[in-house]
Amino acid sequence: MSEVFVVPSDRAGLELDEFLCLQFPSWTKGFLRGQVRDGKVLVDGQIARPSQRLRIDQVLMVDIEEESAPLAPVAPEAELTILHEADDWMVIDKPAGLAVEPERWARDDACLAGALLQVARERAGIEDPDEVGPVAERFRLVHRLDKETSGVLIVAKNIEAERHLRRCFEDGRIEKVYFALVEGEHPLADGESEVIDLPIGPDHRRTGKMMVRTNEGKPSRTRISVGERFRGYTLLRCEPLTGRTHQIRVHLAHTGFPLAVDRLYGRRDAFLLSAIKNGYKAKKGRPERPLMDRLTLHARMVGVPLSASDEIVRVAAELPRDMQNVLKQLEKHRAWRR
């Protein structure tokens, strides 16, 4: 593919890689930066740097072998739910079971990046899935949720917003609240909170797993309080004050209150009605269908500081249906009695 572009006035000042991302939204920024470094993109006939800022009327010559490009992320069938949208960022409601980025061994599966690409294409008036064309916005994920976790996720709409939000995360200025249904009756008194302050690092015995590592881990802090009590279970309100991988799951499991469903750190891979209802009788010839078969963890709220003031915009996501159903059954069969 060989194309020539003239930088319009509304895109003057953009870095070269950012300009290319808007022209070729289906390709990753990393791939496009690599093409620039390999001399496949010339600016006014000269080899350029990915971070070079463009001027109005400069001429770009792009010569890229499409066969070498990565596959575009796949969008899910369900429409993306946008909870709040500002000029430079937005908050979406990520459904459980949807990976944020394409998974290494399942590149053809739908992911959140694919959903965001579809939104950008629709806003640019591109309806044909096979049509190649530029977009006006490139959405950038500034943090992550586990595939099985539902709830709020912040997305930047331009490079300046991305940098601002990343600084806010690094400085601990983003408010985050999760609801976690855990095994056990937590002794923390109503109306009180405590901070779990335990360092976290990789578990070298299993790839992808984390653990509390007193001597080698990174500082990790999670504030918890009780949201609702049941016999044998507790709904906890968790505020991660740092942003380590699997932080809430590791901290809760290490302190003796693992998520009610957590294949990696807990004891169950599904929540069954038969486990909490006395005298439960399964339907003859049918296996019991779980009330919930993913992490009992939901990103409930984020608070985003505005760059021009000290104002914080707080956005919340309702509990998804599966978690609501579990809490309803717990209230019915395991109601808390003092």
Key attributes of the depicted protein:
6 helices, Structural Genomics Hypothetical 15.5 Kd Protein In mrcA-pckA Intergenic Region, Chain A, elongated, Pseudouridine synthase, 3 domains, alpha+beta, 338 residues, four-stranded antiparallel sheet
List strands and helices in order, with pairings.
Layout (H helix, E strand, L loop, with lengths): L1 E5 L9 H8 L5 H9 L3 E3 L2 E2 L11 E5 L17 E5 L3 E6 L17 H12 L16 E2 L8 E7 L2 H12 L4 E9 L9 E5 L2 E3 L7 E3 L8 E10 L2 E8 L6 H8 L42 E9 L6 E5 L4 H13 L5
Parallel strand pairs: 8-15
Antiparallel strand pairs: 1-4, 2-3, 2-4, 5-6, 6-8, 7-8, 9-14, 9-15, 10-13, 11-12, 13-14, 15-16
Helix pairs in contact: 1-2
Short description:
By secondary structure, the protein is α+β, with helices and mostly antiparallel strands. The chain has helices spanning 16-23, 29-37, 112-123, 159-170, 247-254, 321-333; strands at 2-6, 41-43, 46-47, 59-63, 81-85, 89-94, 140-141, 150-156, 175-183, 193-197, 200-202, 210-212, 221-230, 233-240, 297-305, 312-316. The strands form three sheets. Strands 5, 6, 7, 8, 9, 10, 13, 14, 15 and 16 form a ten-stranded mixed β-sheet that branches. A four-stranded antiparallel β-sheet has the order 1-4-2-3.
**Briefly, what CATH class of the largest domain?**
Alpha Beta
CATH architecture of the largest domain: 2-Layer Sandwich
The 3D shape can be described as elongated
By secondary-structure content and strand pairing, the structural class works out as: alpha+beta
Main sheet: strands, sense, barrel: 10 strands, mixed
Share of residues in helices: 10-25%
Overall pLDDT score: 92
Total domain units? 3
Helix count from the secondary structure assignment: 6
| Strand percent estimate | 25-35%
